[in-house]
């Protein structure tokens, strides 16, 4: 059908009839009630409480459900004659609540809703399961519009019949799956017995009593009992040798007898086939247009033409059939060019006006670039692997637009049988405008775009039948409103209002009396109100929402984060059959910070969270595989000056510190092409240091030379080689660097004073199985390199484990060996996990016994908490994560209980949070989209008193808002332990066990020893839970170091100072002040450091 109307595109939906009655429900009269009766005049019972309930509910009556049930018909102690139906005048949207209320009556044993039992009709034809194309065009749903088990037959009308003419090569019309649907021209029934075909044994023949050589019906054809043979000009359209199969296969697509237990089904089900032979020998369709005209003259409603050519057509024949006789003509668009590929040439008769042109689709709604496309195509229909009838009573699989066309013709006939009073235009528009769009319509074939070349979409007969009868409702949007804390995110423990925007498809019926109910089998959500009623109709092509009504949901306090699968049941209609649709949606329980996640970034760089611009609001910095260093602040807004464009991907985790000593922080990171960047907090490049190796690990910032600025230490990979660099902020190398160790390094360095001699040292791990220690002058220290069992993909960590004033080196390799070395390279202890250790080793005193544990994970799928001083894992650990991890654990006091929580991420995207004893933190684990390659970070991004957890994945950046007051306990809260990325853990605070003793006054001891070198210690007693701040000042009042800034419980503590400033450098000999503040309590005293 050409150029006369514009196709309207539809979305694919599923519709089912209502599952329960809304205007009645079932009750069972308790067995204790004797002589139950109903007054036939009043419609009320002899039970006063039941009558009162019926009056309250406005019920109009009650009647026995199973009137033929005998007193002996029972199931255990359930007697079938005690079931009754309470009836209402109209539908009740609160039917489930009425059922529950009635069940509370003493005389009612139970009550329940009543199911509407309707078949979802699948024909019993044995080859149905091979006919993929019928469910594809939703023929199975279309059949449900007829009460087939009640005697309705799709394709039949109350008076008359719908006829599809098949003008083709020839038709084996007595095929057992066609014969019952062959049109019988009763205008030629000369003997008046009501048939023109009779069965003779296993064959069919024309009724001898009707063969009289007279044109009884005056249509111009003598004894045309079923159609005509245009080639031989006789009344039998079968080819004499019965070896032409095309027309027989086409006929089976139109209306193979359906639900007859034989062969195949068809879209037309029972519409009649008028067969025409239009070919001499099957090579050409010489009499095609003759067949069109003859079919129109004989009264065919639809004429199928599975043939054509890339040349002219006879428009006048088409117009005569269409305008004079009222026939709809359907034709195949063509099977492409001679090379077997799609062409876009004009094909006729499909390209003519008043012809519906049909191209072919394949399984999965694929257009496989062999069928003809073009601007004259109206729609597509299945044309590949089409099981249908063939010669000799057989069946076969067919391929071509020859079969797309009759499937469409059968669908048109089925539609017309449902609306027999409709005119041609209405039928044509309905079939074309009710298609389903599919993705290949936006594709191309041989470099030529298919946009506008495949018509309106793929045939959907159910939509064509039901559009105008039913609406087509969908959920356009879901809005969360008035959540408990007002951040627009539905958190565990919160209540939220959920509103729906419901849309109605263009070209469908208006939706009246719409209401929606929501349900779930997931116990994380409780529905306080699960019904939304739409006061106004939803017009076709429009959408609607409710101003006041809403779902009211509550998430349990311990609800695990993630999507909660729910089903929204929508019903519309004034009376039965109601339109209903069940739509699956997800209600998201989330701790997402407002404005996050940020999607579309591949992150393999560990995020840095810090307030670098000094505005008391944190920022997040990280690198992406899209060659950018990103900076975000609260609400997911870009930090001013970011993202910064580098020249290659950034997997190096950014560090921050005042590298140039000007009082402002800088951001330092490396890129894959070997550049080391220094940026200001506004994204201005201050340095791009160029060398030849890749930079993958995080740079470490340290004061190597004792001046007022920081040096930058980083490792490189250049093939199988690598160097250790130390540069000044101006790009000059530190004396003695770079150190060429000729071994590649994929992880960053650790920096600390190994011997406690006031000189910083650098520790690196390589892919050649070595651990190196290098001094500040670039000299490899005695005792190194240490040879391990395998390469290292995890950076080293430095900590004083044994309390002797020097640092131990901790590193884990790809054999699963965790090494603990003394500062001189000798092995203190090791631990074997059996598989790769990845991401980094963090340090914490989880059980507060004064002895730290090492936390790590990797390819053994475990997170370990191991005490190297005892050689044992902490009770409750390790924990099986279920998948390997590429990121290091981090710790923080998330809930202000004084204990540290442990955050561990799996490569697969799952984030776990554990309490110090290994039990799960509320809401976790949760799984994110994408893989996690880098260590998360913890910090108070928005300065609201709780922590945010920042996680980068290969799909974007996630920020979780942990909804509990934070504790201020110092912890390893990001990759490499701090913003400097130096991998150094400073043991300063120790909790002292005093049995059941509780301090009764605030107390700070004198430091001991005094004077001191290298360390001194003070003891503190706190009498209230409060922040404890321990700071070091020089005699002029300048802040030298902050040793403790934690919220601590009442107790006894010991704090140690090692004579170093915030950069890790030894201070000069002199007098210093140590200040201890706990709430309003303050203590300040002098102490002397000597070298």
Automatic annotation (TrEMBL):
Domain (Peptidase S8/S53) ranges: 161-435
InterPro entries assigned: FG-GAP, FlgD/Vpr_Ig-like, Integrin_alpha_N, Peptidase_S8/S53_dom, Peptidase_S8/S53_dom_sf, Peptidase_S8/S53_subtilisin, Peptidase_S8_His-AS, Peptidase_S8_Ser-AS
Residues forming the catalytic site: 168 (charge relay system), 246 (charge relay system), 402 (charge relay system)
Stored PROSITE patterns: SUBTILASE (PS51892), SUBTILASE_HIS (PS00137), SUBTILASE_SER (PS00138)
Organism: uncultured bacterium FPPU_33B15
PANTHER family listed in its UniProt record: CELL WALL-ASSOCIATED PROTEASE, SUBTILISIN-RELATED
Highest taxon of source: Bacteria
Keywords for this protein: Hydrolase, Protease, Serine protease, Signal
Pfam families: FG-GAP_3 (PF13517), FlgD_ig (PF13860), Peptidase_S8 (PF00082)
Gene3D superfamilies: 2.60.40.4070, Peptidase S8/S53 domain
A single GO BP: proteolysis
Family under the similarity heading: Belongs to the peptidase S8 family.
Protein name as it appears in the record: Peptidase S8/S53 domain-containing protein
Sequence ranges assigned to domain FlgD/Vpr Ig-like in this UniProt record: 1020-1078
MF term (GO), any: serine-type endopeptidase activity
């Amino acid at each position: 059908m050409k150029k006369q109307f514009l196709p309207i595109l539809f979305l694919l939906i599923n519709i089912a009839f209502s599952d329960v009655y809304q205007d009645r429900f079932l009750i069972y009269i308790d067995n204790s009630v004797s002589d139950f009766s109903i007054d036939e005049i009043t419609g009320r019972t002899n039970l006063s409480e039941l009558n009162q309930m019926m009056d309250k509910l406005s019920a109009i009556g009650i009647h026995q459900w199973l009137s033929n049930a005998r007193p002996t018909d029972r199931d255990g102690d359930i007697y079938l004659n005690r079931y009754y139906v309470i009836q209402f005048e109209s539908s009740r949207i609160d039917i489930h609540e009425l059922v529950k209320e009635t069940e509370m009556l003493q005389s009612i044993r139970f009550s329940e809703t009543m199911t509407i039992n309707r078949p979802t009709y699948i024909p019993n034809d044995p080859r149905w399961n091979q006919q993929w194309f019928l469910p594809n065009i939703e023929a199975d749903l279309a059949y449900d519009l007829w009460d087939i088990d009640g005697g309705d037959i799709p394709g039949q009308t109350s008076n008359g019949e719908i006829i599809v003419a098949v003008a083709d090569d020839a038709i084996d019309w007595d095929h057992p799956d066609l014969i019952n649907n062959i049109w019988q021209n009763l205008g030629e029934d000369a003997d008046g017995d009501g048939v023109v075909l009779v069965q003779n044994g296993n064959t069919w023949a024309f009724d001898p009593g009707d063969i009289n050589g007279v044109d009884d019906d005056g249509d111009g054809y003598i004894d045309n009992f079923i159609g005509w043979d245009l080639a031989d000009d006789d009344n039998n359209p079968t080819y004499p040798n019965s070896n032409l199969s095309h027309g027989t296969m086409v006929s089976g697509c139109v209306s193979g007898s359906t639900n007859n237990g034989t062969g195949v089904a068809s879209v037309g089900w029972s519409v009649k086939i008028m067969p025409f032979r239009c070919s001499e020998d099957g090579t050409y369709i010489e009499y095609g247009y003759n067949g069109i005209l003859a079919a129109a003259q004989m009264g065919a409603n639809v004429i199928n033409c599975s043939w054509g050519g890339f040349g002219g057509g006879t428009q006048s024949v088409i117009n005569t059939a269409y305008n004079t006789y009222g026939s709809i003509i359907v034709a195949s668009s063509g099977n492409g060019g001679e090379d077997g590929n799609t062409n876009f040439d004009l094909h006729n008769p499909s390209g003519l006006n008043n012809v519906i042109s049909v191209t072919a689709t394949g399984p999965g709604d694929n257009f496989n670039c062999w069928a003809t496309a073009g601007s004259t195509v109206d729609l597509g229909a299945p044309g590949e692997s089409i099981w249908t009838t063939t010669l000799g009573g057989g069946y076969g699989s067919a391929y071509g637009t020859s079969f797309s066309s009759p499937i469409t013709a059968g669908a048109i006939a089925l539609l017309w049988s449902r609306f027999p009073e409709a005119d041609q235009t209405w039928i044509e528009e309905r079939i074309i405008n009710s298609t389903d769009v599919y993705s290949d319509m936006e594709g191309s074939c041989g470099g030529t775009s298919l946009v506008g070349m495949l018509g309106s979409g793929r045939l959907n007969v159910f939509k064509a039948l039901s559009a105008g009868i039913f609406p087509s409702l969908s959920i356009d949007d879901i809005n969360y409103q008035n959540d408990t804390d007002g951040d627009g995110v539905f958190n565990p423990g919160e209540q939220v209002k959920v509103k729906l925007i419901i849309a109605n498809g263009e070209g469908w019926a208006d939706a009246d009396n719409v209401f929606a109910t929501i349900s779930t089998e997931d116990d994380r959500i409780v529905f306080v109100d699960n019904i939304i009623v739409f006061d106004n109709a939803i017009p076709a092509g429009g959408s609607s929402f409710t101003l006041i009504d809403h779902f009211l949901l509550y998430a349990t306090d311990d609800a695990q984060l993630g999507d909660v699968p729910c089903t929204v049941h929508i019903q519309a209609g004034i009376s039965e059959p109601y339109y209903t649709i069940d739509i699956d949606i997800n209600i998201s329980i989330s701790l997402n910070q407002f404005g996050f996640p940020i999607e579309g970034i591949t992150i393999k760089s560990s995020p840095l969270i810090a307030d670098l611009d000094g505005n008391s609001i944190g920022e997040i910095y990280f690198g992406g595989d899209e060659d950018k260093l990103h900076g975000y602040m609260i609400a997911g807004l870009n930090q001013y000056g970011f993202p910064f464009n580098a020249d290659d991907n950034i997997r190096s985790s950014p560090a921050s510190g005042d590298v140039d000593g000007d009082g402002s922080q800088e951001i330092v990171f490396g890129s894959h092409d070997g550049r080391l960047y220094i940026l200001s907090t506004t994204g201005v490049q201050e340095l791009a240091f160029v060398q030849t190796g890749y930079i993958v690990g995080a740079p470490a910032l340290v004061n190597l030379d004792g001046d007022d600025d920081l040096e930058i230490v980083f490792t490189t990979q250049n093939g199988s080689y690598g160097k250790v660099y130390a540069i000044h902020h101006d790009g000059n190398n530190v004396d003695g660097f770079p150190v060429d160790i000729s071994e590649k390094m994929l992880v960053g360095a650790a920096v600390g004073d190994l011997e406690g001699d006031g000189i910083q040292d650098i520790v690196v791990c390589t892919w050649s199985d070595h651990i190196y220690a290098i001094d500040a002058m670039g000299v490899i220290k005695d005792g190194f390199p240490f040879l391990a069992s395998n390469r290292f993909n995890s950076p080293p960590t430095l900590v004083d484990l044994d309390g002797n004033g020097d640092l131990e080196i901790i590193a884990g390799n790809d054999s699963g060996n965790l090494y603990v070395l003394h500062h001189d390279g000798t092995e203190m202890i090791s631990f074997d996990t059996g598989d790769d250790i990845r991401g980094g080793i963090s340090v914490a005193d989880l059980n507060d016994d004064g002895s730290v544990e090492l936390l790590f994970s990797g390819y053994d799928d475990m997170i370990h908490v191991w005490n190297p001083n005892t050689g044992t894992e902490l009770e409750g650990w390790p924990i099986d994560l279920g998948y390997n991890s590429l990121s290091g654990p981090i710790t923080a006091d998330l809930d202000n209980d004084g204990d540290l929580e442990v955050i561990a991420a799996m490569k697969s995207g799952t984030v776990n949070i554990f309490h110090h004893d290994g039990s799960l933190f509320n809401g976790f684990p949760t799984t994110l989209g994408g893989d996690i390659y880098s260590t998360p970070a913890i910090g108070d991004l928005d300065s609201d008193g709780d922590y945010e957890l920042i996680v980068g994945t290969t799909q974007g950046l996630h920020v979780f808002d942990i909804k509990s007051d934070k504790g201020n306990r110092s912890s390893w809260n990001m990759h490499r332990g701090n913003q400097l990325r130096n991998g150094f853990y400073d043991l300063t605070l120790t909790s002292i066990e005093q049995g059941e003793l509780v301090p009764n006054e605030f107390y700070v001891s004198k430091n001991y020893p005094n004077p001191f070198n290298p360390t001194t210690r003070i003891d503190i007693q706190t009498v209230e839970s409060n922040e404890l701040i321990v700071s070091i000042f020089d005699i002029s009042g300048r802040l030298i170091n902050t040793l403790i800034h934690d919220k601590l419980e009442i107790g006894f503590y010991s704090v140690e100072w090692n004579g170093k400033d915030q950069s890790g450098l030894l201070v000069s000999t002199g007098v210093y002040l140590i200040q201890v503040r706990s709430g309003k309590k303050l203590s300040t005293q002098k102490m002397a450091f000597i070298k």
